[in-house]
Fold this protein.
Amino acid sequence: MTISGVSGKTSYIGTTIVNLRNQLNDLTTQLATGKVSTTYAGQGLDRGFALSLRAQISSINAFSDTATNLNTRLSVANLTLQGLSDINAQVKNAATTATLTLNDSGQTSGQITAQAAFANAVSMLNSQSGDRYLFSGRAMDTPATVSADTMLYGTATQAGLTQLIKERKQADQGTNGMGRLTVSSPPAPTTVTSVAEDGSAFGLKLLSVQSSLTGATVTQPTGTPKSASVDLGPVNPNDGDKIKFNFTLPDGTTEAIELTATTTNPPPGGSFLIGANSAATSANLQTTLTASIKTLSDTSLVAASAIAASNNFFNPVATISGAAVNNRNTPPAPITGATALSGAPGTDSLSASFAAGDTITVNGTQITFVASGATGNQLNITDSVQTLMAKIDQISGTKNASTISNGAITLHGADGADLSISSSNAAALGALGIANNTTANPAPLRVGGPPFDTASNLVAGTPANTVYWYTGENGPGSARGTAVAQVDQSISVQYGARANEQSFRYLLQNVAAYAAVTANASNPNASQQVTALAQRISANLAPQNGQQQIQDVQAEFAGAQTATKAATDRQTQLKGMAETMLDSVEGVNQDEVATKILALQTSLQASYQTTSMLYQTTLLKYLPIG
């Protein structure tokens, strides 16, 4: 007879216990983690759905991080924009209310305010968020501008704004201090008073003449360069008759000199004495007009000159300058605005003529030459050089009209834009002093000199001799497009900025001009100079129609923030839904798991007791005693 041990009989109990313990371990892990399984395999058939939900949540988290960074940058940028807007208001108020008392540096309290405001504005435009410069376009690791001191005062080798303002003042006032104008009378008749420009790009420009002088004949400004005249004729004007000369100043503003005929001797301010005859009266008119032009040149012209110089400094312009060229006259003379674009030998025409069918291409736009009847972007071959320059200016969109002086042409592009010119007739283009296929890049403009008081045109500064104030990226496309953030699967937000955008640049150039100008306290016209400057600064810092405002940039940034918030709010809802669905796949019911654990613990306890009893059973318990 064979007697077997209990181990073989109870092996199935041990297997059951192991299974129960594994189940208990799984349930304990579920209770601790709140998850069905710590592996995707343990999630069953829904594991693919869980994976997609996790990817969606991860994507939303990434967008949330982007939105956080974006909102931080936009908040810093908005603080800068608000600060710049406050500076605009502060300087405008200072220009309006400051006293005219000059300090030892020749500046008013308003100008001292402008100096501090300018330094603050430059610092703001170099704002950073983390390691990113916010107003440098795509050059996020480069400061947007040079320092305020460098802009104003330059370096050892580069001219800053203050130097350019001084050079421009000399050029605009001219050698005689009359704004590049001359007042004269021909040998006969002596009753004529003539006012003429000198043909340069600088100084006062004749706009019109208005007269109520009895018996006088007025010739409006005509010719190249322009001149106007007043012929009193044989009869004296009456007491109280007036004549007004209107001028355009370098910054585009206009000023007038109005003179009244009087019999009072000495004549009061703004009047000229009626003499014994019209010739004597004409001489008195010339003397008074000369003195009035000098006063205008030393007051409003000084202010307008500073504004123009600041505009040329802060608004880089492409410049193509032609070499001096002679016409076909015998003997040859320098070409002028009146020189014809084609003509026979011995005439005032280009040395190489344009012919019908020839073209000049300016920034990709063609000008076509025709024999006659030109329309649109056409020119007659008999038109003048001045007509051609006007057409080129129209196409380029420049604010700085092309000039010609001593046979040399100077063409300017639009603010911040390249300028290119080419022609199918290279010889004729060369007769204008311009090489074929020429392209120029934007650069700050300054007076071509020295000497400056006799300079004829503006030339492009170079990095070697002139400060280039903007150091950020200046590529094609909008400034906003230089920084893009993806805040949703189908939504991207543009939030880039460049410090040379119109609104920032315009603020800088006006505040800088106000801060840079100094007046000589011993000059009797000093108060009028700073008054004229302050008036222009105040007017310029007011909102300008058709011009970008700082508030426009703020609105665009606000739109970016609104779009980001809307996307973030929507993603928050989607994330909540996705987490709920994921929890239904991966999560467990804690109460149910706890109940199962208790049941398993009870089963295990029973199994342990049964197994223990079985293992305590021996043969001796079944053998008889005795």
User: Anything to note?
Assistant: The chain has a mean pLDDT of 88. The chain has four domains: 6-34+588-622, 58-145+486-570, 181-297, 317-442. The chain is about 40% helix and 15% strand.
